[in-house]
Structures are given as C-alpha cells and as structure tokens.
Write a structure and sequence with these properties.
This protein is α+β, with helices and mostly antiparallel strands. Helices cover 31% and strands 21% of the residues. The strands form 2 sheets. Strands 4-7-8-9-10-11 form a 6-stranded mixed β-sheet. Strands 1-3-2-6-5 form a 5-stranded antiparallel β-sheet, sandwiched between helices. A hairpin with a 4-residue loop joins β9 and β10. It is globular.
C-alpha cells in the first residue's frame, strides 16, 4: 500500500477562510467488492455523487456548493494559464478514474493531461491500465473524507495533485517511491505564486465569474507572462 509522506512546505499560502469546512452528505461502506463498486457507478450514472473506492472501502459523498465552487475556480485558473502560456492540454473534468489491478478509484474535482495530452487526445473513454493518469488533478477538501484520497491518487499514479481545503493550497508531487512529497510550488507551473490563486478565490465572493476570469487573465498578462523566462 502506498504511504503518503508530507514534508512541511516552506510557505503556507494561507488566506482568510473563503470556503469554510462545511461537510457535504457522505457515508462509508466497508468490505465492498470491486464488482459492487463498478455496478454502483453504472447505477449512479451522471448523478452528482462522488464515489471513492480504496481496497474494499467505499465512500459516497454529495458535494456541497462550496466544494463545487472551489474546484470550479481552480479549474478555470488552470485552463486560463494553459491557454495564455500556449500549452496544449486535455481537460478530464470529474471523470471517474479507476484501476481494478490496484483496487482504487475516484472522481477528481478537475484534472488535466498536459505533458501527456497527445496520449488521450480523441479518446472516448479512459483506461488507466493503458492510458496515462492525468498530469494534474485538483482535490477540494472542504469536507474531510473518511478515505485517504491521496493514497488513491498515488495508487492511480497521478503525478501532481493540488489540494485546497478552503484556506490554503498544497501541492503534492509523486516521487519515485510512489509517495507524495509536499512542495511549495507547482512543478507544472513553477512560475505560479499559489498565494495569488487564494487572493483570486477571495475575490470571487465580490465579483461575478466573467469579471473574475478577466481580472485573472489580465494579471497573468501583465505580471507573469512578461517575466516568464525569468520566473521558470
């Protein structure tokens, strides 16, 4: 079983609690088989219920508005950064990622193939036993899960995970031992000040989404892109 190893980051990227820790509805089942998990996914279809499976433990959660809002904002920011820096990508949204051989599966809040975009370009379905895992996944943790979702991400071999708890963003990078190290920056976007993302999330309670995206794009164009070669 993969072990999650956390090392204290050099900076915390803390901010005022924009998304308080308000739990959504969830419950946990234990001793569930993989076939039960797959049957449940088929029965649920496109209902807004997140299902996490980790070697017999199965959790169902109904995401709160705050949860969905946090994931949506970070997904927008990543998409805008990719567009403005001219990096091709494929967005996977909250598609179910699962592998029977490691008995793990979950839905991220958002995910992106960036380095490996060409490997999934045009795919109608993703099979992680053949296809690479997303290069970057976003995990909003405003309601504590009863399953160690980072252990699931590690088993699925997701290289980078952003975890947002309503106060701060932590970046987890998968190492050669199959464990996550905590970093104070994103390896995918080394030029990106994470505390600035928190500031824009704070700003989202004051302005509408179109204005927020415009302000974020303008900040990138004026403060980041002109100095990109120096910041990388």
């Amino acid at each position: 079983m993969s072990t999650v190893v956390e090392r204290p980051p050099r900076s915390s990227h803390r901010a005022a609690p924009v998304l308080p820790a308000v739990a959504g509805d969830y419950f946990l089942l234990t001793g569930m088989s993989w076939s039960f998990y797959e049957h449940l996914l088929a029965e649920l279809g496109n209902r807004q219920i997140r299902v996490t499976y980790h070697r017999g433990a199965l959790e169902l959660m109904s995401p709160s508005y705050r949860h969905e809002r946090g994931g949506g904002l970070l997904g927008w920011f990543v998409s805008i950064i990719l567009e403005e820096t001219g990096r091709p990508s494929v967005c996977g949204g909250s598609t179910t990622m699962r592998r029977q051989d490691v008995e793990c599966g979950l839905e991220p809040d958002d995910c992106f193939w960036i380095e490996n975009f060409s490997a999934v370009l045009g795919r109608r379905e993703i099979d992680l036993t053949i296809d690479p895992a997303p290069d970057l996944s976003i995990e909003v943790d405003v309601a504590s899960s009863s399953i160690d979702r980072l252990a699931v991400y590690a088993a699925l071999r997701v290289p980078e995970v952003w975890r947002f708890d309503g106060l701060m963003i932590r970046v987890y990078r998968l190492n050669e031992r199959g464990e996550y190290d905590v970093l104070d920056h994103s390896p995918t976007f080394p030029f990106l000040p994470l505390d600035k993302l928190i500031e824009f999330i704070e700003r989202s309670v004051e302005i509408d989404d179109m204005t927020l995206r415009r302000e974020f794009r303008e900040w990138l164009r004026t403060e980041i892109l002109p100095n990109l070669s120096e910041l990388q």
